[in-house]
C-alpha cells in the first residue's frame, strides 16, 4: 500500500517506510497530547548513521529525564524479585488454602521518560503482582473491580469453566464478566506446576490486555526448585497512541529501565528467570542474552530443560523458565532479538560482580539514543 502522509502516522509505518515526508514524521507523538511526551523522532537518524539505517527515526522519549517510579507506585527493579505469596491457612483436611485480594484500578503510569499511558491495572501495578503458590494447594483469589470498565481474571491452569474468568460463562453464579463495583472469588487447585499467567478476558481482548491487566502466576513443584536468585520478567509493550501498534517495548513495563539500572547478580551463582510474553499487536517476542547460555524449561512444567541456548522465541502467553550462571564479571546485555523492539525499549543489562561503572549505559548508547541522553555513568 502506498504511503500517504495525510493518514495517521504510526510507528510501524515510520519504521517500515523511510519515504515519509519530514513534516509528517514530525507529527508523531508518543502520547495523546502530552507536551513533554512528544517523541523527538523528526529527522533523528541512528546515532551511528550507517548506510541504510540513517533514515530510520528513533523514538527518543524525553532526554535527561528518568521515569518517576514513586508516582507509578511500582519500581521495575523491585518487581523483578517481588513474589506475592498471599495469605495461607491450613484446612481441616490438612491442605493449604492460599488466598489473595486483587483490585482492578485505572491508573496513569509512565512507561518511558516523559511517556505517560492510561493503564488499567491489577493492584495498581503493571505487570500485576506475581502470584506464587505451591502445587496441590487450594487457591482463592477475591477479585474486586474498582475500574470504570468491566474486567475479569482469567488464569492459565487447569480449573472449572466457572472459574475461567470468561465473560458469558458462569455469569448466573456470579462469575463471567465482573462489572465495575462488583467482585468475584475465583477458586481452583494449584495445578499444574510451572510458570503461568493471568490476564483480563473481556472484549476487546487485545485492548484489555494491552492496557496492563496481566501478571505472572507461578506454581512451584511440591519438592520446590534448587535455590537461585529468582527474577520475574514480563515482556510487554505499550500502544501509546492507540493505533494498534506498540511505541514502547519493555520487560516489566518501563522501556530501557534495566539499561539505566542494570540487574545486579552474583558471579557463579544460579539465577532463575521466570519469563512471560504478554505482548499484544506483535506476533512474537524474544529474549537473548550476551556472553552466556541458559537452560530453558518451556512453561516450567518439566524439571528437565528442553534446550541449552542463548535465545528463545515466545508467542503471546508463551512463557518459560531460564536457568543460568554468569562465570565472569562484567555487564551483559539482554534484549529482544527482534531488533526493532530492542531499540524501542526492550533492552537491559545484567551487572555481574564489580565491572566498570561505565560500561552498560555507554555500550547501549552506541547503538541507540537513550531516554536520558545516553552514555552517562550508570
Ligand atoms: Cu479488562
Please characterize this protein's 3D structure.
With 378 residues, the protein is mainly beta. It is 12% helix and 34% strand. It is built from eight helices and 21 strands. The chain has helices spanning 11-16, 22-26, 69-72, 76-80, 205-210, 257-260, 339-343, 359-367, and strands at 83-84, 87-90, 96-112, 115-122, 130-134, 138-145, 154-155, 183-189, 194-199, 214-220, 229-238, 248-251, 263-265, 271-277, 284-289, 294-298, 307-309, 311-315, 319-324, 330-335, 347-352. It has a six-stranded mixed sheet. It has a five-stranded mixed sheet with strand order 1-5-10-9-7, with no helix packed on it. The chain starts with 10 loop residues before the first helix and ends in an 11-residue tail after the last helix. The structure holds copper (II) ion. Copper (II) ion (CU) binds at residues 151, 200, 202, 208, 213.
Amino acid at each position: 500500500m502506498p504511503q500517504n502522509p495525510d493518514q495517521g502516522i504510526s510507528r510501524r509505518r515510520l519504521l517500515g517506510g523511510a519515504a515519509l515526508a519530514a513534516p509528517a514524521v514530525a507529527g508523531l507523538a508518543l502520547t495523546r497530547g502530552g507536551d513533554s511526551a512528544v517523541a523527538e523522532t523528526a529527522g533523528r537518524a541512528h546515532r551511528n548513521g550507517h548506510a541504510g539505517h540513517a533514515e530510520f527515526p528513533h523514538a527518543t522519549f524525553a532526554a535527561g529525564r528518568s521515569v518517576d517510579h514513586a508516582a507509578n507506585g511500582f519500581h521495575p527493579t523491585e518487581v523483578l524479585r517481588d513474589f506475592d505469596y498471599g495469605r495461607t491457612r491450613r484446612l481441616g483436611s490438612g491442605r493449604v488454602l492460599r488466598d489473595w485480594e486483587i483490585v482492578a484500578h485505572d491508573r496513569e503510569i509512565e512507561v518511558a521518560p516523559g511517556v505517560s499511558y492510561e493503564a488499567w491495572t491489577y493492584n495498581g501495578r503493571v505487570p500485576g503482582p506475581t502470584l506464587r503458590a505451591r502445587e496441590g494447594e487450594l487457591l482463592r483469589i477475591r477479585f474486586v473491580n474498582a475500574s470504570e470498565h468491566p474486567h475479569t481474571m482469567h488464569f492459565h491452569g487447569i480449573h472449572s469453566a466457572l472459574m475461567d474468568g470468561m465473560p458469558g460463562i458462569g455469569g448466573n453464579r456470579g462469575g463471567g464478566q465482573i462489572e465495575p463495583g462488583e467482585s468475584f472469588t475465583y477458586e481452583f487447585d494449584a495445578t499444574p506446576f510451572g510458570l503461568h499467567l493471568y490476564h483480563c478476558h473481556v472484549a476487546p481482548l487485545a485492548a484489555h490486555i494491552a492496557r496492563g491487566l496481566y501478571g505472572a502466576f507461578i506454581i512451584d513443584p511440591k519438592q520446590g526448585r534448587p535455590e537461585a536468585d529468582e527474577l520475574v520478567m514480563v515482556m510487554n509493550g505499550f500502544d501509546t497512541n492507540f493505533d494498534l501498534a506498540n511505541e514502547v517495548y519493555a520487560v516489566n513495563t518501563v522501556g530501557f529501565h534495566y539499561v539505566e539500572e542494570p540487574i545486579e547478580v552474583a558471579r557463579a551463582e544460579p539465577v532463575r528467570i521466570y519469563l512471560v510474553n504478554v505482548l499484544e499487536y506483535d506476533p512474537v517476542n524474544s529474549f537473548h542474552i550476551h556472553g552466556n547460555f541458559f537452560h530453558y524449561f518451556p512453561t516450567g512444567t518439566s524439571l528437565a530443560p528442553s534446550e541449552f541456548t542463548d535465545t528463545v522465541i515466545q508467542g503471546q502467553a508463551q512463557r518459560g523458565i531460564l536457568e543460568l550462571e554468569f562465570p565472569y564479571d562484567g555487564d551483559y546485555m539482554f534484549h529482544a532479538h527482534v531488533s526493532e523492539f530492542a531499540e524501542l525499549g526492550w533492552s537491559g543489562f545484567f551487572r555481574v560482580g564489580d565491572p566498570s561503572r561505565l560500561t552498560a549505559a555507554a555500550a547501549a548508547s552506541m547503538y541507540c539514543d537513550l531516554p536520558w541522553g545516553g552514555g552517562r555513568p550508570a
